[in-house]
Structures are given as C-alpha cells and as structure tokens.
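Q: Two folds, back to back.
A: First:
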Amino acid sequence: MKLLNDIVDLLSDKAGSLTDAMLKTKVLMHKIGHKELAEWVSDELNGYGPDKIVPEYRVISIRLFGNVSNIAVRQTHTPLPTSHLSDKQRLVVTEKKLRESIQVLERYAASDNSLIAQVKPEWFPAIKKGGIEKSFQIEQAWTQFEPGQVVGVLIEVRSRLLDFVLNLQDELGDIPEDEMKDAAKGVNAEAMFNAAVFGDNTTVIVGHNNATTITNTVTKGDFNSLADTLKKAGVDEADVAELQAAVNDDNPATVTETKQFGPKVKEWMGKMTQKAIGGAWTIGLAAGGKLLADAVGGYYGIGS
C-alpha cells in the first residue's frame, strides 16, 4: 500500500518531514474508516488550543534567568531562584506546555540559540521576595529552554506514530488501497492507535450515540482499573470476579506473544456477549463488544 509505505518512509527517515507524514496520516485515518482518530493528528498539525489537554510528552522543563543589580554589582544571565515560590507560581516558570503546531516545533528544534520568553515585570516582586538579597533589583527576567528539548518531543511524536503505522501495516498486509477500508474492519485500529500514541493507559469510551457514555482509563497490568471500567458499564461483580479468574488461568506470556486473548478470557467474553444479546447486560451488544475489546486489550497492552 503506497500510502502506508510513504508514511513509514517519512517517519523512519530523520530528515523526513513530520508535517508531511502527519498530513498523509490524516488521509489514512479517513481511508480506514476511523476519521475520529484524526483528531490527535489535527491537534499536532494545528497546535493545542487553550481548551485542549496537552499530552505529557509535550510538557518540558524550563529555567528562569534574569539580569539583577545593586549599587555595586550587576549580574547578567544569572539563574533566578524558584524554590520560595508557591507551587502554582513555580510551575509557571519551571514548566512549559508546548501547544505550538508541529511545523513551529520543527523550527524551534532547528534553532541555534536557546528559546526564551520574557517574564512580565508584575512577577518581579514575587521572584525577589525571599529569593534574592534585598539590595538587588530585577532588571529583566525570562524563561529559557533548549532546541534539544524540542527535538526530543518531535522524536516522541515520530516514534509513536511510526509504531501505530507499522502495526497497522502488519495487520492489513499488502492489499490495494481501495480495499483498505474493508480490511480495516477486522482490525481494532482504535485500541492499536491508543496503545501506540498514548501508551499503556488506554482510554475507553463507550456509547458515542447512546444515552450512556462511559469513560475510564485501563492501565496495562492493573486489574483494578479494568474492573472499575467494567463495573461502570454495568458488569456484575460476579462476572468481574470470573474474568479475574480467567485472566489468572491464561498464560500472560502467550497473550503478549500472540497478541490474542487466552482461551479462558475468550470464553468469558463469549458469555458476556450472550448476556448483551439476551438483554441481561443493558449497555447493548455493539457498545458492549467494543468495551470488552478495548478494556481487556488495554489491560494486556495489546490491540484486540
């Protein structure tokens, strides 16, 4: 598939344009019938607005510097203390959320100089009080981070996206692009995407078009987080306990190797499907099947 191959080529070449790879990925999401997954791609391409949660990999540490002086001495580009500030104040001058677009971050990464942001004079009294000897005045203050830190963020984005595309390529095989959408129906692209892009914490959302919406995070290897998600979806405690027994009976190494659920877990999921069909599990068959696949897959750290 040329589209997948093009994306892999761009992502695996350190000189390849990450912006171009993202644009092609957006096309890919639509071709496989998962345009909802393109939201992350759009955020990376356009930047994260003030109402958006910035992914952890885009949060970097910054340093506070300034020019200070008194009647006898002037110190330039000197580190300014932050330990005396409140937790909220300290975060403002020691942590930066990179909300900018990938294209802007690529420009930052190519810079030969440190990247700075001026600190407003209104902050000077708080920085000085308890942190700087009384005879000194702050003339100028700024926060600073380095291009290498931005390079690290871009590598994270490139690596996460490449993991997803390679896994999808393995699942779909070598098929014509016009058959991609039908082939993708047999692949849990959403779970695969979440695992590659967001890591072991898998967000499970059920009921997009139903009255009930369930959102929870299933952490790889943490059965309690899996149990909480299932209980919120209306799964009885007895059924959750039965799943835990099934998980304990199945060989986790085999599950990891084959990326397939073990026989006991498959049997349990079959029982739950029958409950959904019979109305004993009120969340419904379509939403229930998705929940089981995403939640249990998140527990094992695999795409189901």
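A: Second:
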Amino acid sequence: MLSSPLLVSLTLLLSLPLLFLLSQHLHLLTPPDADDLALFRRAGWAPHTTSHLSATPKIAFLFLTNSNLSFSPLWHKFLEGQTHLFNIYIHADPTQPITPPDPPLPRSIFIPSKPTARAHPSLISAARRLLAKALLHDPRNHYSPLLSQHCIPLFSLPFTHSFLLSHPHHSFIEILSHDPNLHARYLARGGPRAMLPQLPFSSFRVGSQFFVLTRRHARLVLRDVSLWDKFRRPCPSDDPCYPEEHYFPTLLSMLDPHACTGFTLTRVNWTGSWDGPPHLYTAPEISPELLHRLRHSNSSHVYLFARKFAPECLPPLMDIADDVIFRNSTIGHYFLLSLI
C-alpha cells in the first residue's frame, strides 16, 4: 500500500486540475460589477416617498457624458437662482479627457464613474449609478431625467418643474412593442436561448435611451436582479444591438406599465438615420422656429429637452435663450392640461 505522505501528495496532485476548473467557475459566477451591485442594493431601499417632507420635490438631472459639457452656460442660465428645485449628477467617462465646467454647474456632483461605450451594457450601468446616487443623496429627488452632453432644455426650469410635478406618479419613458426591428433586436441579444426564462419575446420592448423616471420607478430599476443579469452581458453577435434602448422600457413595461406614459420627453431627429447616430444640429440651423418646432409632438404632450447639438450651437442658442427658450408662454399652460 502507498504510504500516507505519498498518498496525500498524489491526491493533491490529482486535485489541481479540479481546483483550477472550480476557480474558473467561481470567477465566472462573481459579478464583474460587484461594487455596483452593492450600490444598487442600497439605493433600491432608499426612502420611497417625499410626501412627508414639507420642502418642494426636486428634479435630479442626470448627465451621462463622454465629452465636455459644452452647453453648461445654457444650463447655467436655465438653473439660475432656483437651486431649491434641482440637483445635478454627472457620470463622466474616466477614459476621456473631460474638463469640468468652469464655473461648475450649481448643485452638481461628479459621481464615481466607469468607462462607457455605445451599444454596450456599460451605458445601462452608468444610468443605474446615476439613479442610485440621486436616490441616496437627497430624499427630495422625485424625478430623474437622463440627459447627454448634447442635450438642451426647451423651456424654463419653473415650467419644466411644474410640468413634471403635475404628473407625480408617471414616468416618461418610450415603450414600443411594435417596432419593425423588434424581433431582430431580440435575436441580436441572443434570442430565446439567451433571454429565457426571464424574458420571452412577447415581453421584449424598445425605446429611447433618454427618459424621466419617478423616484418609485428608479427604486424598482435598482432592485431588479434577474433581468439585469441578462442585460449586463454584451450582445453575442455583431448584429445591431442597443441594450441601453432595451433594458429600461422592457423592465418597466413588465413591472408597472400603467404608470409609464410610453413616450419620451427628449426630442431626437432620426430622419435619414439607420443603425447610426441621430441628426446633429449645427449652428446655421439654430433659430426660434427650430426651437418651437422641437417642442411640439404629434401627440398630446410637449418635449422638454432636445438633442443632438454640436458645440458650435452654443452662441446662437444663448442669443435666443431669454426671448425663446426660457420665456414661458400660453403653450405651457395648454400642454400642462393636455397630458394624460
């Protein structure tokens, strides 16, 4: 018989391949964003309502950016003298040479950020980080609009605040169930083999990357584990796949469709674009007529924000800011009464 020391050595030697395979398996089971998951877990149980607070509910503006905030002077004018109505949270891609606005936007916080990429779940993670920070930082943050560095406001802050708070139980998020590319997008995510059982095709939705969520819906998003486990994985094929346009509308359609308007409040011009970025407005296109046109939809709502604008648009936008963008008119009262 083999001596005990020799038997132990042989057993350990034979066990090495098994231990290696086990370690690899455990590595795969360990979430690559464990710190994010801890943050999301804490924020998902943040206070639910602001009804017990006597202070005015706030708007938490969430900026998701991979370049400088070129329109910060316009946002300064938008926010000026009304710090009781808002907070600002900025997720800036740390791999890009981004210069903070000077002077900084009022009540703004650059949150701990990670790299992002278009058509990649990193954009979902970034949006969730912003939502989590807003929930944990200030219990008065009631609405959270997600914006980019290319977004501009289309109305004054008082009107924007009144518009949102006149519908305190609804999130403004585009949810499309009959998009002509819906099935192709589902297949690009891996189809039934990758998405079942959590997500059958009948529940799959698409929508705009930019939305406005209530505090309650932000908490629901951050509590989600099972659907996020599907969407945090990169798409398995080279076909067009935009998880940042899939995850939020799908989740909220499954959890609380009746409290979602089904449309976004951020106007984007997709004319002439397919599988690419939207129209980029340039300085010669800026006019009062354009701004008035961007506000209107073909439905019963109004757009509060618009994108996508080149940095060169800032001077002509500043020229018409007081007389056009931030001048409240009768259009505001009409639309406040016409929605929902």
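Q: And?
A: Residues 12-31, 330-340 have pLDDT under 50 and may be disordered.
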